[in-house]
Specification:
182 residues; TTHA0802/YceI-like_sf; alpha+beta; YceI family protein
Length: 182
């Protein structure tokens, strides 16, 4: 009985230590901006989810494509029906790793480089991008901006509207994480 109590106590301590390495965010703010000769297009969502393990430095993001909101409803319809084919490819996902050797258990602002695979429109593409990670107590905040070439994800822009949609779209990510408690 004494050994069983010791084993259970050791397991609880181990799982608690593991949980302190994992942070999650259920309201990732994502936006994209397309600057083209005839019009600028911007869309936003706060329905992305993400998790970061500061020990293994694994990063994960997932966002429902249909959650992006545009100024014009027609833009939103074209985005989902014609370009992203949201019914066929309902999510955009990123799986990657933080490349920096910093110990994120200490408060501070850390410039980070993340390498991983972004899946949009059913097409995987590898990215290496820079961002900022701010640690304060039991919270993490992440900010990053990077560019995505729409052709890299087989998103076809009809020649009729090629002056309305940019070939490269700027993506902005903002996320506030809290420690996962078990």
């Amino acid at each position: 009985m004494k050994y069983l109590l010791f084993f259970v106590g050791a397991c609880l301590l181990a799982s608690q230590a593991l949980a302190q390495d994992i942070y999650s965010c259920r309201k990732v703010h994502l936006s994209f901006f397309s600057e083209a000769p005839l019009e600028n297009i911007e869309a936003k969502t706060d329905q992305g989810v993400s998790a970061i393990n500061i020990k293994t430095k694994v990063v994960y993001f997932k966002v429902p494509v249909t959650s992006f909101r545009f100024k014009k409803k027609l833009m939103e319809e074209h985005f989902n029906d014609n370009y992203l084919e949201s019914e066929k490819y309902p999510f955009a996902e990123f799986k990657g790793n933080i490349q920096d050797a910093a110990d994120f258990r200490n408060d501070g602002t850390y410039p980070v480089t993340v390498t991983g695979t972004l899946n949009i429109h059913g097409v995987d593409k590898n990215y290496t991008e820079k961002g900022t990670l701010v640690v304060k107590g039991n919270t993490l905040n992440v900010n990053a901006t990077f560019n995505v070439r729409v052709a890299d994800h087989r998103i076809k822009i009809p020649s009729l509207v090629v002056k309305n949609v940019a070939e490269v779209v700027a993506i902005t990510v903002q996320a506030a994480y809290e420690i996962v408690n078990k």
